[in-house]
Structures are given as structure tokens and as C-alpha cells.
Amino acid sequence: MTLAAFIDRSRKDKEDWKYTDLNALLFSSFPRKRESIASDSEHKSQLPSNYSDCSADNRARLVFLNGVWQPTLSHFATVPSCILMGDLESGYELTLGEQTCLVAQPIELVFVTDNDAPHEIDLKFFIDIGANGRLTLLENHRASNAITTIETDISLRPHAKFVHGKIVQGGAHLATAKAHVATGGYYNNFSLLRGGMPIRNEIDVILEGEEAQAALNGVMLLRRAEHADTTTHLLHQAPQCASRQVYKTVLDGKSRGVFQGEITVAPDAQKSDGYQLSRALLLSDQAEMDAKPQLEIFADDVKCSHGSAIGCLDEDALFYLRSRGLDEASARALLIKAFVTETLEEIQIEEWRVLFRREIETWTDAQTAREKK
What we know:
Layout: H1 3-12, H2 23-26, H3 40-43, E1 60-65, E2 68-69, E3 84-87, E4 91-96, E5 107-112, E6 119-129, E7 134-141, E8 146-156, E9 161-169, E10 172-181, E11 186-194, E12 199-207, E13 213-222, E14 227-236, E15 242-251, E16 256-265, E17 272-282, E18 288-297, E19 302-311, H4 315-323, H5 328-341, H6 350-372
Parallel strand pairs: 1-5, 4-6, 5-7, 6-8, 7-9, 8-10, 9-11, 10-12, 11-13, 12-14, 13-15, 14-16, 15-17, 16-18, 17-19
Antiparallel strand pairs: 1-2, 3-4
Helix pairs in contact: 4-5, 5-6
């Protein structure tokens, strides 16, 4: 889906895009990037390192430069190279379809750009996981000098499990992920959005088979005039399905955060269990948070709940920490970390918890440094 297609969507569905305006991007007139001019020596040392030991042989990392897959910069480790096929024009397909296949190690997709003029990158991914398959995938987007659009279609066959992580730092990022979850399947998504001008991360999950499950969790960290929008649509279509959503947002400066979460329970989806929670922490009186939780229930035997809260740092907690010898900036940082890292408990993979905690601490440490100036 191109930038023009996203803008067209935002104009047609004004209610769903009420809080995120893309018209400013329309007048940017960024050219679309269609080729790579990278060399190994130029970019290998600039790739972001997510794990504590990214150079280890058991790390699988697939690198995309300007949206083009770079096999010479990638490292498959023990993952079969045939797992990824396609190109930028037609889209990339990552498949474990029609087979029972266990990929125990996480696969990391790294997206970087050239340091040239701003441009538009349009990506399409198709992810197909066969019955009883297992896949763990982490997207790492560092395309700060680009408008990136990414459309991901996900198919989970019966009893398949997909753990899907995502980090976005800087730039304009417009993404849609649509997951179809069959009987007994499990889709787990965790996203960390840092900055963005703007970011729109849209997740659409359809629980199509009995006892299918989904867990959507994330953190948004914003300052200055940054804008990030997390929008989720979760459809319980079959009986005895379960879903859980927990999102936290921290805002400073004149930033704006958006969370729109919709849970729909179809008439035949009896004994559904849906839970949704959104909390936001405002560090500035000029920051803005828009939260719109929604429940549409057409079945009568369900257990569904949602909650939303927006507030400031607790003055009593600040006073307590300062009375124990912390300066104000350090006390605020401690409370921010405690507020955000609670969400990390939703991450099942210990290695990922360490990674996301490090990303959050980097942001809060920079925030502390700014406040001490």
C-alpha cells in the first residue's frame, strides 16, 4: 500500500482516521525508492544491534536497505534460506506453509536507509505458517530519512503460533498488519514506537477458529511534536476465543498519542473472553492523548472488558522518592520506567524483554538529561 493509498483511506474512513491527519505528507512529494546502491563495507557496521550478541552464529538477521532485501548483509544462521522469497515490487513472502515446521530461534528483520534525500519506501509482506508451526519474528525499523509504508498479511493455520515484535524509531511509518488465526492458533504482537512524524501502526486480527487467541501489547514514547497512532481491530468470529490488549503511552512536549482499540464479538462467538487496557502518562500540559476503546458484542455468553486512563505523575510518589535523596529529574525517570516496564511482563521471550527494556531506558535517560539542563 502506497502513501497515496493510505491518504485515500484516511479520507474515505474519516472516523477511523479522526486523530491522525496525513494531508501534510501528501505535499511532501517524496520520490519512491526502488533500488539499492549499498555496499557491504558501507552499511554493515551501521546496522542496529538488538541483542547483546548479534554477531553470534545462531542469530538470524535479514537486512533490507531502502526496502530491498540484501542477502550479502543478512545472516540466516540455522534458518533455511528458502523461508524468504520475493522482491520489493511484488512483495516478500515469508512462509512455513503446508508443513509442520518449528523455528525455535527468533528471526530479525532490519530495515535501514541510505543517507540521501528523503524518499518513500513501500513494502508488502505475506507470512504463512502451517499447521502446528512456530515462528518468532522481530521487525526493527530505523528508516529515519524516509516515509515507510508496510502492509503485512498473516495466515496462521490450525494450532500455529506466531510471536511478532516491532520497533519503530523515527521517520514517518504507516503500517497495517492483518492476521487470520485458525482453530487453536495464537498470535502475539508487541510494538515499541519511539518518535515518528507520524506513525500509524494498525493491527487487524480475525479469530476465525474455535479457541484461537491473540495478545496485542505495546508502548509509545513521544516528545517534542511527535505523533504516534496505534489502532487495533479484533474480531472474535468463533466460539471460545480469547484476546488481551495492554498499551502504555508516555508523552512530553507538544506530542500527540492515539490509541483506538475495537473488539467485536460475532453472534456465533459464544464464550468469548476479551480484555483491553490503555493508559497514558502526560509529562507536559501541552501533550495530548486521544483514547477510544470500543466494544461491539452480538453474543450473550461472553466476558469482555476495557479500560482507559490518562494522567500525570503522582505527586505523592515524587515527594516520597525525593525525600529518599533523589533529585526531581531522577525521581521522575524512575516513575516513568516503572509505568512503562509493567507492560514488558506481557512479553514471553526473556531476550526480548531485555531488548525492549534497554530501548525504554535509553529514551527515559535522554528525557532525564533534557530535564536536568
